Amino acid sequence: MRMKTFRTLNAAAAVLTVTAGLVGCGSDDTQTPTGSDQVSGTVTVFAAASLTETFTALGKEFEAAHPGVKVVYSFGASSSLAQQIGQGAPADVFASAAPANMQQVVDRGEITAQPTTFVSNRLKIAVPKGNPGKITGLADFGKTEPRIALCAEQVPCGAAAKKVFEIAGIAPQPDTREQDVKAVLTKVTLDEVDAALVYRTDVQAAGDKVEGIDFPESTQAVNTYPIAPLAKAPNPNAAAAFVDFVRSDRAKQVFAAAGFDTP
Q1: What is the 3-state secondary structure (H, E, C) of the chain?
Q2: Measured distance CA(129)–CA(208) in Å, rounded
Q3: Selection from 242, 207, 209 nearest residue 227 by Cα
Q4: Which of 57, 103, 246, 260 supports an S-S bond with 255, CB 3.0-4.6 Å?
């Protein structure tokens, strides 16, 4: 087997532009969160990296509905965010890409309400535009030739990838493992790898920078996303209102347009 080399860059995860269609709908479609007359100040939201585009769009709508509110996000791997919450990081809301990381927060008594599942997501193969590595499916991840990027196994996208490889009977040969799905996607958009496993929503958000390839095993490793306000929220009223908004019919429209499945 030939030796692989890979230069790991410290590039930040690409922040992709949210299309105006996600935030430009009329006010009749927008469902105002409850308790709007009591909502003000800053609401800090810890959210899975795969929610970057949709939560950014929803945050703008939430601020428009509550002129006295500022939404501040910390996007990253759900496992890292759960750890930061446990270490006392000030946050109002936690939205995880997997129940396991939310359960860590629940077990420590750090939420005030039962977590609610608001979307689900599944994996998709992402390749650079033009598919220079000639990737055809999941089996290519078990070969030594292609340059492959995967999420670290302790984060939700990595755990899902591990499951699909086990189902398919494939031993993956990654050149790099990244700490969240946006970092993996960046490897593809920069043409540093021939293929990667990311969420289908990430492929859609990347537009013409990448191409996506579906594979049947993805339906057997669906990630569900729970959200909850935190017990030590500095702004509990805004936290509750933001969670309500994420569960609203308007938010479901935004999530569906981005490629998520909604309850």
Answers
A1: CCCCCCCCCCCCCCCCCCCHHHHCCCHHHCCCCCCHHHCCEEEEEEEEHHHHHHHHHHHHHHHHHCCCEEEEEEEECHHHHHHHHHCCCCCCEEECCCHHHHHHHHHCCCECCCCEEEEEECEEEEEECCCCCCCCCHHHHHCCCCCEEEECCCCHHHHHHHHHHHHHCCCCCCCEEECCHHHHHHHHHCCCCCEEEEEHHHHHHHHHHEEEECCHHHHHCCEEEEEEEECCCCCHHHHHHHHHHHCCHHHHHHHHHHCCECC
A2: 7
A3: 242
A4: 260
> For residue range 81-133, what is the model confidence (pLDDT) as tens digits?
999 999 999 999 999 999 999 999 999 999 988 999 999 999 999 999 999 99
- Cα separation values, 38 from 139, 202, 238, 239, 249, Å: 54, 35, 8, 11, 22
pTM (two decimals):
0.83
Q: Are 249 and 148 within 8 A, CB to CB?
A: no
